[in-house]
Amino acid sequence: MADVDAVTRAVLTASRVLVGVSARSLAAAEDTVTLPQFRLLVALSVHGDANLSTVAEVLGVNPSTAMRMIDRLTTAGLTERHPNPANRRESLIQLTDDGRRLVDEVTSRRRAEIATIVSRMDPAQGQALIDALTAFAHAAGEPAVPVAGPDAYPLGWTDTTAG
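^ thats the sequence. predicted structure below, dont judge the formating
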């Protein structure tokens, strides 16, 4: 393997690029949601309806923080609560059509900007990047992004509650 320090520097540099892409893709929605709230919307889009405990665990926050985020997103019309049919004492949180549309729009902007950057690369470098980033994500325990479909979002967080 290459020098760990050199690989780390390259990943840190690339992460700055990706953070910039992420920030720009969310800029149009900043009046509506914060980055942490957007993460919650993406988590719901990837994992589906979830109870408060699951949302908090997937996001790595405490339940009271998750509840405040959900309250704000529900007030904004991006999420809604409904009774859990398996346990009427708890609610499930789900995306509304407006919430899904926001995730789709931000993701589309992000995907387009990344595609523009990647199109500037030599095809062989592109394949090497696929191999390297796939290995990096695998080493981190992150599932691959599907090529298409409802789960094709570049910001899916691994559900640590899954077996």
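The beta strands are 79-84, 87-95.
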